[in-house]
Amino acid sequence: MASLDHVDLELLAALSGDPRATVVALADRLGLSRNTVQARMARLERAGVFLSFERAISSSALGFPLEAFINVEVRQVELPRITHELTQIPEVVQAHGLSGQVDLLARVACRDARHLFDTDARILAIEGVERTETSLVMGEVIPYRLAPLMELARREP
Fold first, then answer.
1. 79 vs 57, higher pLDDT
2. How far from 42 is each of 8, 21, 35, CA to CA, in Å?
């Protein structure tokens, strides 16, 4: 998708404000027809605008209250295989490839410090992983958000 128009941005803002809103409710709120909203939602989905329809669930509620970020340095030529092997570790809830000193940043959720130690050891045991460095999450100070960015996009031409 080349760019989002004003209606797309208004639709996304409405969804951000009420992620459970029905197509009918969105149409009513935005003064659009149900068919228009449905067509735009389908187009936005095909264009990859929506990252996930998975509901965000607290890892603590599942019994994994300890979260950490693990910096992972790897042999670059083995990155695709290492990434695949990381997906096989259930405690790895998210990972990003980075530029700079660190190759991967893995977010993990564990039951306690011993579980974190064991999870880190499983990551280190992957062939091609050179080194890890772990930082405990002490608290989320700014949750993932896009509403301010959407507002900025709506204000700019």
1. 79
2. 11, 15, 10
Strands (DSSP E) contained in the chain are 66-74, 92-97, 104-110, 129-136
Q: Please tell me whether residue 55 adopts helix, strand or coil conformation.
A: coil
pTM value? 0.81
pLDDT tens digits, one per residue of 106-118: 999 999 999 999 9
Cross-strand bridge partners of residue 70: 106, 134
For residue 81, what are its two tokens?
Answer: 């295989």
**Number of other residues whose CB lies within 10 A of the CB of residue 15:** 16
Alpha carbon distance 28, 14 (integer Å): 11
61 secondary structure, DSSP code: T
